[in-house]
Design a protein that fits this description.
2 copies of one chain form a homodimer. By secondary structure, chain A is α/β, with parallel strands linked by helices. The longest helix of chain A has 22 residues. In chain A, strand 6, helix 14 and strand 7 form a beta-alpha-beta unit. Chain A contains 18 helices and 11 strands. Chain A folds into 2 domains: 175 residues, nicotinate phosphoribosyltransferase (Alpha-Beta Barrel), CATH 3.20.140; 206 residues, Alpha-Beta Barrel (nicotinate phosphoribosyltransferase). Chain A starts with a helix and ends in a 13-residue tail after the last helix. Helices cover 45% and strands 13% of the residues of chain A. Chains A, B: InterPro entries: N/Namide_PRibTrfase (IPR041525), NAPRTase_N (IPR040727), Nic_PRibTrfase (IPR006406), Nic_PRibTrfase-Fam (IPR007229), Nicotinate_pribotase-like_C (IPR036068). Chains A, B: Keywords: Glycosyltransferase, Ligase, Phosphoprotein, Pyridine nucleotide biosynthesis, Transferase. Chains A, B: Belongs to the NAPRTase family. Chains A, B: GO terms for molecular function: glycosyltransferase activity; nicotinate phosphoribosyltransferase activity.
């Protein structure tokens, strides 16, 4: 009863592609892409990979030829008819026709642009130059490819039984985490784990486990393809990329100081409701909230990312109170390096004082820590960030100096303009 | 790429049979069967099921119709050509032609005989009447059917993801046990878990995990079919059934006192080497060893079963020393309700003082304790024992009164004849 056709077909693949669909990306990339498409599509932008876990020499773990094969394969992909239909016909955050016909017509013709790749000092220098609307689309697939190639390099050395035990342990760990989460009152949690996942199939399993284990307390996944296939909600809003490019494009300090609010002003023209969640930390949360226009307090919520979460949540509550809003009607989304311990701690602290959502990323979809020797399956803190816009360097300050980015002189200028004082470094796990 | 043929074929099964081969039994049944075939094949013997975990109402868990279907299916089985070839051609314990042509010619024609089944007070009364050579073959398949039907009754209520998590946890648990065992010096361990396994496929996985995790420290499996398919050693020697029937057939106290040694005398005519392992506890280990003929000290070893293992091992060492044998050249096989804790304890106590082997049973192949509510997958201590021979009740005393069996008056007579004093009860887990 061997399925000879399946077996022959599987052996016909030249490679085992990691990215098999342009929708295998985070929903917020599509949301941001529409905003970029409408206003800044031709800004020349460079994205680049940065491995913040420098002790892990990724270029020693992954063969350059394999990496090129995967990147090249991703470049062959086009939006399929069914995928386009989903974007056009599905309701996102309860709203249909989230995306304009013009944007989707463009997306149907889109292919990922060229890349530049070199290895240096054990790390890959992987960069993407071109129109913002094109290069922005590389972030998630590039990261997913690098992370899954790392996994595969380890899995290749394991026998069938070792693999079974590995996944048995990983499933057990994820399920026990979900059981713990299930004990929290009024939980709302989503999968944000695409970019640094162990692998695509594994992320799919994690989403299924969340959905079955948590029921309607599981909000959905950031991954469009998994959302489509498993018929769960696609979730996400926006990222540092928008203020970073908006800021880089300004010509003076006054315009720079205004740039993060310009992002919000554009965003609220494009989206509404639960998509109105501001990310305040690009140039320091404290200054951002102090200088924010009053209309920001009418937004649905705030995402608390690089700031220590208890401090960040308290700051959000103070902001809403100072503007006359009731924090219990506001939403705080926590999304930085979460695991069950931190979710429990945050929940114990804030439950009942405001609405809370969790975007659970790498430690949902890539927690194989301790399962193989030498931590070879431990996740790394690798990012793909915009580094240049129209020839000017982009800058990120954030609330954690470990995550700062940009030329030192520009970082100092931004800190001055945004009134950012000295910040204490927080450890970055993932 | 769906395999329509496989799918259609799978749906064509009227039932999903638990026993699919007459070799899906323990090797010691085949060894004992040859001895029975040669000397006592037509003794009328009754076997019966006894659930020592009386609080578990098996007849409430398993539908009688399903049980009958499985028993009926087992009765349709005949030794296949390849199975017969394996018994004829394979080397067992290093020896070829372990089984006579006459015995194998008979086995090729054998089918499991009729059964009698009734439910009473939440338990099944399942008995097998007929020639010893036929009824003896029911023990292992009957137990395996009852245990796997219990598992299935629980699994039926679980979704696909629950099932994945269940097996993920079980694999993780087994593998962690094997990793602990792997740290013991000079380990020799075998799978004895057929009769009370969670299921056939699961036992196969456990055997594979033992083989890959322990290499040549894994001696093999008691299950003939798994040994054949996975090309590992088939292991086992003999059980209480032989002295129980030999004892029941005696006409006076003097013959009764001699019966356990008659078993050994017959056994050493049929087998040699590592198959010469005596099971001393049927009517009390202490008296058995005190009265044993000197030639027993030339046997390879002793199996320590119902006695507390440290006390049983010390008693074996004293026996060998008292007969002038060097315990370091002798083999003690421990086989009663073992799990990793007890193996570690026994090993720490005896390692270096004698050769040690472990027959690991139920807590290898059926340790799903705590994985579902109300302990519904916890193993039960269920046995299938010979209860009558030529119209006379059989008796077992053992070293643990919890495991005693037979009419009270007969048990008392046996205890008097074999000089068994008062025994302390030991808990029976499985």
């Amino acid at each position: 009863m061997l399925d000879l056709a399946t077996r022959a077909h599987d052996h016909n693949f030249r490679i085992d592609p990691i990215i098999r669909s342009l929708l295998d990306t985070d929903f917020y990339k599509v949301l941001m892409a529409q905003t970029i498409f409408r206003r800044h599509r031709d800004v020349a932008v460079t994205f680049g990979i940065n491995n913040r876990t420098a002790r892990i020499r990724i270029a020693d773990e992954i063969a350059e030829g394999e990496l090129r094969e995967q990147l090249d394969h991703a470049r062959t992909l086009r939006l399929s008819r069914g995928e386009s239909t989903w974007l056009r016909g599905n309701a996102f955050y309860g709203k249909r026709r989230m995306f304009s016909a013009a944007f989707l017509d463009w997306l149907e013709t889109f292919r990922l642009p060229e890349y530049e790749l070199a290895a240096r000092d054990g790390q890959y220098e992987l960069t993407f130059h071109g129109p913002w609307i094109e290069t922005t689309m590389w972030e998630v697939p590039a990261l997913a490819i690098l992370n899954e190639l790392r996994s595969r390099a380890v899995l290749r050395d394991l026998g069938k039984l070792d693999l079974q035990v590995l996944y048995a342990r990983a499933m057990t760990r994820v399920w026990e985490k979900i059981e713990r989460l299930g004990r929290l009152a009024d939980l709302s949690i989503a999968d944000f784990g695409t970019r640094r996942r162990h692998g695509f199939l594994w992320q799919g399993w994690c989403v299924q486990a969340m959905a079955e284990g948590l029921g309607d307390r599981f909000l959905g996944t950031s991954n469009c393809l998994i959302a489509l296939r498993r018929e769960v909600e696609a979730v996400g809003t926006n990222a540092h990329e928008l203020p970073m490019v908006y800021a880089a494009l300004t010509d003076d300090d006054a315009a720079l100081a205004q740039a993060p609010y310009d992002v919000l002003a554009d965003w609220q023209q494009d989206y509404e409701g639960n998509l109105l969640v501001a990310l305040p930390d690009t140039y320091g949360t404290t200054g951002f909230l102090a200088d924010a226009p009053d209309w920001l307090s009418a937004w649905t919520g705030i995402r608390i990312d690089s700031k220590e979460p208890i401090a960040g949540g308290e700051e959000a509550i103070r902001f809403w109170q100072s503007r006359g809003a009731d924090p219990r009607e506001k939403l705080a989304i926590f999304s930085d390096g979460l695991d069950v311990d931190s979710v429990e701690r945050i929940h114990a602290h804030f439950h009942g004082r405001m609405r809370i959502g969790y975007g659970w990323g790498t430690l949902l979809t890539n927690d194989f820590r301790g399962f193989v020797r030498n931590g070879r399956l431990d996740p790394v803190s690798i990012v793909c960030k915009v580094i240049e816009a129209d020839g000017r360097p982009t800058v990120k300050v954030s609330d954690n100096p470990v995550k700062a980015q940009g030329p030192a002189a520009e970082v100092e200028r931004y800190k001055r303009v945004f009134g950012v004082g000295e910040l204490a470094a927080l450890p970055v796990i993932v």
